[in-house]
Amino acid sequence: MISIIIPIYNQAEHLDNCLASIKKQTYDKSEIIVVDDGSTDDIKIVINKYQRVFGFKISYFEQENRRASAARNRGAKIAKGEYLIFCDADIILEPNMLELMLKTLRENSSASFCYSSFLWGRKKFILWPYDAKKLKQLPYINTASLIRREHFPGFDEKLKRFQDWDLWLTMAEAGHHGVWLNQFLYKVNTGGAQTMSHWLPSSAYKFLPFLPAVKRYNLAKAIIIKKHNL
Known about the structure:
The chain is of the alpha/beta class and 230 residues long. It is built from 8 helices and 9 strands. The longest helix is centred in the last third of the chain and has 17 residues, at 212-228.
């Protein structure tokens, strides 16, 4: 079984679209765990709607605002599946995403997780086969990847950024690697409510170092570099 873990903070509109895409999945042996990280919007209305749709397959938990990593870890502790996927509420899954990722992992028994290319709004993020050296240089793998539960070490809740990069580096240091699925299997909805993740064009980091977002990025990157001796 696949446990789909959705951390959420004030994203009711996005959650509706995300759950609608999960409903269309061709693989249905799954459970959905929504962990509300202290939201103040109408998330419960969306949850009530999909509890009628999914029934026992969806569960909802609330906590005080402790950020996405704490919400993801709580969901992982509750999960019953052999496989985990952390799906932020702003993600819209292609109907065959879970089926293809699971098939790929089963065909690659030495791999600990499966990741794919994706869309960020209209921008295409075309990834590449797993490369441990390149992973040390940049965070190219998104959290929306299917992970073997027994190899999942948990997210570092002390980190405010790059929690996904830290996760993949930690797994690599434990001898675990991923397998790339060369398809666009999901889209990150960049409009509307705030999202769990943010993106700036690469040129901003090179030519606009004075921007607050770039300063925060560089500070967070320095923390990862120090933690993993990169």
